[in-house]
Amino acid sequence: VNAAARARRLVFARAAEFLLAYILAIWVVYTNLQTRAYGSSLRLAGAFVVVQTGAIGLLSAVLVVRTFVAEVVERHTRTLQPPVLEALAQHASGADRSSELRRLHRRHPVHVERCLSELLPTVAGAGRESLSQVAIDLGIVARWQRQSRSHHVPTRRAALTALGYLSGDETLPRLISALDDADPEIRLDAACAALRHHADPTVCERVFALARRAGILERAILAEELRPHAVILCERAIPECLQSRDRNRVLSVLEIVLVWGRAVPAPDVFTLVTDADPAIRAAALRVLPFVAGTTDLMPEILARLGDDDPSVRAAAAFVGGRLLAETADGALAACLRDSRPEVARAAGFALAELGRTGVEMLERQAVSPDRAAASTALEALERVRIGRCDYARS
Amino acid sequence: MEWHPLLVHAFTLAENAIIVYVGAVHIVYLLLMILGALAFRAQPGRLTRTESNASLRSPLVPPISLVAPAYNESASIRDSVRAMLTLHYPKHEVIVVNDGSTDDTLKILIEEFHLYKSSREPSRTLSTAPIRGIYESRSPIRLIVVDKENGGGKADALNAALNVARTPLVAVLDADSLVEADALLAMVKPFLEDPDRTLATGGIVRVANGCSIDHGRVTRVAAPASLLARFQVVEYLRAFLHGRIAHSFLNSVMLVSGAFGVFRRDAVIAAGGYDTTTVGEDMELVIRLHRIWREWRKPYRIVFVPYPVCWTQVPESLAALHGQRNRWQRGTVESLWRHRKMFCNPRYGAVGLLGFPYFVLFETLGPLIEFAGYVLTVVGVTLALITPATALLFAVVSVLFGLLLSVTAVLLEDYTARRYPSMRDLAQLMCAAIAENFGFRQLLTRWRAEGVVDACRGKTGWGITERRGFHASASRP
């Protein structure tokens, strides 16, 4: 929050500086205009004209130069990149092209560096090791290490991203320290790279902690990266969080488990189904199908179908459908008459997923005098008929 | 010729008032331009490939309904719906509202997308014209067509779609808008970053005239051949890349274009949906959201995202452009009048003190004052109350300022998106930026001034709209 507030203040301050500079320029021209024969308003207008013309000229020049430079760079890239990429690709596939790469690097260092950072993420194993060695030999890694401490965020980000794709553990300390970087994209890239490099429990737990604190988008990305390490995290980090009384902590961990969408040994989720907080109850119910365990879930699902909170009832109905809870068909049918349409719909779709038993139940409800329940049942039956129960799952 | 001193005094007073006003306009626009450029640099960048890939797989990304009202769109509805269905997003459904079309829009949709009459019941939260039926697709695509009776215009159609939608987010589009494949994800990003506070996001609308379009996708971007359309390219760039980024930074965005905007459905419903009694329903809704959330004292934000791109065809005939600008101006006046208690009211924070006064003083009264300035200058020169040299100098100041804004807009475009990469396109845009000051700008000023007068006289209706193959937009930039 402080960083964002600081950034806002900086924008305001710089905008004020620019505006003052503009007004000052007009004032300077105004005071120096020699047309004393005219009144002050005319001189002011003249000053406006001079400064505006200057500003337009400057901006137009910037625009033309940018376009020109971009065109030249693109032309150069089109000519130079193919031989550099070719040499790097051959080197990665086992041929020794180091002398040619050294020669190319002497003549076109920027292109070699750029091609290397583009190629590194696309190769693995021995190929990546060869390219990493070339990057060290050509002094590119040392340069990236320097740039990874730059104050300029895009430079720092590019360098850390490239370092993250090198093989070997030499860059790991730098990546770990980048987990605390002020820039969220750098933190994200560093976390993914650290997991690729050395996924020991300490690194996994640090990245997991980062995922918990991050926004939804970053959490979604990091959860995907953490997926292969789910079991390690279930040993200590996840139980600790689920047992904590911190609402945000619990909810974020439940979201991560939901992203994994696979059987994880996290029995603490079962106890959260009866938590006092309805948001936690609903989130815990939604991840129930992904928690490994022998606990009989049916009594709890049935109980939650009668919960006071509609989001919990809807989640219970959803889970009932996912777990094919045939014994819950009566309770689900009752939920079709729920006052909240989202609960009734979830129940309808859950019955549609139950197969024959559920369909029979829906057919009975479709002709019931309760118009809302009947239309929900009919809609669910239509989904069964056209094989579109996928709607229920989202 | 000697004039009565009182007349000369009155004239001088009016001229001076206009000069002060023009000076204020210059400073405010300049500040917004600088603030917009700096705010753009400071804000998070576009979606990275990693973010985009993760979003496409993640169950944490909220589902969204794309809502597109359609009235007599038989020529383009196939391509538009296909383009909407193929947008990159993990879970999205398309809701097309056939707003009582008299052509075969519905028939085309039923045949093309294998629709059946569904039992889906719309909620009755927002009152709308009667719904004749809801259709869904048998194919594994998420398309819903709401067939409703005409009445209440675009706002009523949108309300019907809001009743049918079940997702937490809704994206409002024109049926004839073309949205870039990854634009939806970028528009949803602010909701993922701050789900509790974000109520709406708006994106950039660009001019599609002159671009190559294939199966509902813009495949090559180029400046339009028509001068009128080229003027509008510069105008759209100015509208989106200056004021709106700055207003977003100040949380005082007053308009999310009806051609492309994403809203939290519960927020729109809590605010009472779209107002069917105004032609400026998009602006009216955004102002109402500001007003209600400020009155409820709940933290919120309405964000302008400078990256996502929606392409729209702009009018190429003067009659259609006249009708469109008149309607936009009337919509602005109606919306501002309806919420006039927000004007300079500190209770409404940045919107009440910045966004609202900006729209009243510069967007609504601006055309009237500028028009009066032209008339007074001509009268003054004719009656020898001011010298031609003075008049010319002030005209040059005004033209140069307009040019400065246009050049910075083109520069910002180059910096943010670089959609016009060739030197030729750039030269064409720069020429248009200069040429628009001689005739086009004055014409727009006249039409907008007329719009203010029409709004005050209570004129209603949409006026002339132009429809061609890939059609003219009904929404303002």
Q: Could you please describe the fold and organization of this structure?
A:
Chain A is an all-alpha fold and 394 residues long. In chain A, 75% of the residues lie in helices and 0% in strands. In chain A, helix 10 packs antiparallel against helix 11, helix 19 runs antiparallel to helix 20 and helix 20 (341-353) packs across helix 21. The longest helix of chain A has 53 residues, at 40-92. The radius of gyration of chain A is 31 Å and the shape is extended. Chain A starts with a helix and ends with a helix. With 477 residues, chain B is an alpha/beta fold. Chain B is built from 14 helices and twelve strands. Chain B has helices at residues 5-42, 49-57, 77-85, 105-112, 153-164, 183-193, 227-249, 265-270, 281-295, 318-338, 349-382, 388-416, 423-435, 440-456; strands spanning 64-70, 92-99, 115-117, 131-137, 143-148, 169-173, 178-179, 198-207, 212-214, 217-220, 260-264, 301-312. In chain B, the strands form two sheets. A ten-stranded mixed β-sheet of chain B has the order 3-4-5-2-1-6-11-8-12-7, sandwiched between helices. Chain B has a two-stranded antiparallel sheet with strand order 9-10. The longest helix of chain B has 38 residues, at 5-42. The chains are: A mainly alpha (394), B alpha/beta (477). Chains A and B meet through helix 1, helix 2, helix 9, helix 11 and helix 14 of A and helix 1, helix 2, helix 6, helix 12 and helix 13 of B.
Keywords:
heterodimer; A: 394 residues; mainly alpha; extended; B: 477 residues; alpha/beta; 10-stranded mixed β-sheet; two-stranded antiparallel sheet; 14 helices
**Which structural class should the secondary elements of chain B be placed in?**
alpha/beta
Low-confidence stretches of chain A: none
Largest sheet of chain A: none
Question: Portion of residues in helices of chain A?
Answer: over 70%
- The count of helical stretches of chain B stands at 14
Cα-atom radius of gyration of chain B: 23 Å
| 3D shape of chain B | globular
Most extensive contact? A-B, 63 and 61 residues
Order of helices and strands of chain B: HHEHEHEEEHEEHEEEHEHHEHHHHH
Strand order of the largest sheet of chain B: 3-4-5-2-1-6-11-8-12-7
| Series of H and E elements of chain A | HHHHHHHHHHHHHHHHHHHHHHH
Number of strands of chain A: 0
- Oligomerization status of the protein chains: heterodimer
**Quick one: biggest sheet of chain B?**
10 strands, mixed
- Number of helical elements of chain A: 23
| Annotation, overall tally of beta strands of chain B | 12
Structural class of chain A: mainly alpha
Helix content of chain B: 40-55%
| % residues in beta strands of chain B | 15-25%
Distance between the termini of chain B: 48 Å
